[in-house]
Design goal:
With 244 residues, the chain is α/β, with parallel strands linked by helices. 33% of the residues lie in helices and 24% in strands. The chain has helices at residues 18-24, 27-34, 75-89, 99-107, 193-209, 214-219, 225-243; strands at 7-12, 40-45, 60-63, 94-97, 111-114, 120-128, 144-151, 153-157, 163-167, 175-178, 182-185.
């Protein structure tokens, strides 16, 4: 008898801008599109207090981005952080993105706060470190690749024993792993170029106030297939871990 499809839970930690949601759908839908169709995916609204029981009941966990700020330490976020720490202890494959990346770091004793140089938004290059060559998720990826980014807060200090995997000139902690199977990435593998351009369009008034050229940023957006491929890589890792 064949095994059922691996069970993956998406912890949805907020929603995108209404105009973007109307055009492209919401965070969870972007992840579902990027993950393997062979996964049995459940979405829970973590920002509404939903948590999925014992982490060991799942074959994989994905944590989305959010308009919230980890440093606000809202009760739902702190409860989710405690749950993520349990998931790491139980070695459940876990991928935290943007807010999820920061929440994972916070959950394990790292420090999260506003980046001292402000916002990073648009398409930017991420450089992988030598450590990524031996990493179960990142090995085989190019040493440098384009990725979509939009964040004001960052992981200012990694958790103890975390392995730094990627960075760029602006953001020293673009990707890290803790334990065997828990990753945080500041960039957005679920974003298409069209979604990134839409974000910059919504952010344009704020970007201009911050002294940035919003139209130039929109014009410089490119596709990011290597970054997007991380979701398929994570899917494959979930399958492999379930059968090992």
């Amino acid at each position: 008898m064949s095994q059922p499809n691996p069970r993956v839970v998406i912890l949805k930690t907020g929603s995108t801008y209404p105009a973007i949601k109307d055009q492209f759908g919401d965070f969870d839908e972007w992840f579902v599109r990027g993950l393997s169709p062979g996964l049995d995916i459940t979405v829970l609204n973590t920002d509404a207090g939903e948590l999925p029981g014992d982490p060991a009941d799942w074959d994989g966990i994905v944590v989305t981005g959010s308009p919230a700020m980890v440093s606000d330490r809202e009760p739902w976020s702190e409860k989710a952080a405690e749950w993520l720490a349990q998931a790491v202890d139980k070695a459940v494959p876990l991928l935290g993105v943007c807010y999820g990346h920061q929440l994972l770091a916070h959950a394990l004793g790292g420090e999260v706060g506003y980046h001292p140089d402000g916002r990073e938004s648009g398409t930017h290059s991420v450089a992988l470190l030598e450590s990524a060559q031996y990493d179960p998720l990142f090995r085989g990826m190019p040493g440098s690749f384009d990725a979509q980014l939009t964040h004001k807060q960052s992981v200012l200090r990694l958790p103890k024993d975390a392995i730094l995997l990627g960075r760029n000139e602006f953001e020293p902690h673009q990707a890290f792993r803790v334990g065997k199977f828990a990753w945080g990435v500041q960039f957005h593998p679920e974003f298409s170029a069209a979604i990134m351009k839409a974000y910059l369009g919504v952010q344009a008034p704020d970007l201009e106030r911050e002294g940035l050229d919003s139209q130039a940023m929109i014009d410089s957006v490119t596709s990011s297939p290597d970054a997007s491929g991380l979701l398929e890589r994570f899917s494959s890792l979930v399958f492999e871990n379930r059968t090992s």
